[in-house]
Amino acid sequence: MTLNPLSPLLYEPLVRAALLEDLGRAGDITTDAIVPAEQRASLQLKARQHGVIAGLDVARCAFRMVSPDVRIELVRPDASVVTSGDKIATISGPARALLTGERTALNFLCHLSGVASATASLVSAVKGTRAQIVCTRKTTPGLRALEKYAVRAGGGGNHRFGLDDAVLIKDNHIAIAGGIRPAILSAKAHAGHLVKIEVEVDTLAQLEDALALGVDAVLLDNMTTAQLEQAVAMARGKAITEASGRITVATAPAIAATGVDLISVGWITHSSAALDIGLDDG
Hints:
Elements: H1 8-23, H2 29-34, E1 40-47, E2 51-52, H3 56-66, E3 71-74, E4 81-82, E5 87-94, H4 95-125, E6 132-134, H5 144-153, E7 167-169, H6 171-177, H7 180-190, E8 197-201, H8 204-213, E9 217-221, H9 225-235, E10 240-244, H10 252-256, E11 262-264, H11 267-270, E12 277-281
Parallel strand pairs: 6-11, 7-8, 8-9, 9-10, 10-11
Antiparallel strand pairs: 1-5, 1-12, 2-4, 3-5
Helix pairs in contact: 1-3, 1-4, 3-4, 4-5, 6-7, 7-8, 8-9
């Protein structure tokens, strides 16, 4: 799978806001007091643990917003697998810019690499099955496009980006609509011809009703592996199947073995641990 780069339009405002938050009203008073304005330096981004890299363009943007004279020479681009001690990039330019932009750059890079690494662990766990690991809308506010990019860097795929690009009928929609049938019929009446409809089901009876009404995908929520196997058999050739609920690296292989098309996981974006990456001298 080709990893297309993020458009700068998606991350430049976020990087600018992060730098403004860090620099405050007086700028980097520590660096400005200690480092001469004319001094230059060359530092290395290095991995301090095993993982997958994501967010280097965002990190570059942070340094170059501080000074356009900063240069970054990549050694391990996004989607690269790294281990402790691996050099990721060399960053050179005005020493003040490197020190001032360091934390903002690393905040983005470590977080996004953590998302990519968490995704990669699940992708590896289901290797050899038809299941694709996908993320959800459980993202850090403001960072959704970046985190979904990081999921792709880790080998996963993206679920819908927002409430406006697909219909997903969940349990509360069904309850308020008065049942799965009126919910689906209302969605069909309002959705455009290019909009897909997915419905969340908790039981095989609900699944049967959804399939009879004709939907594009079914979200099989918190089902046992035995239920998932039955659901996959029922939906085969009729709808895409997506398993969701308490997915871990340990449970993913058995869930994937049921034959589901997708496994959606929220924690890879909202709770993944940052990958430890440092900016070191030499």
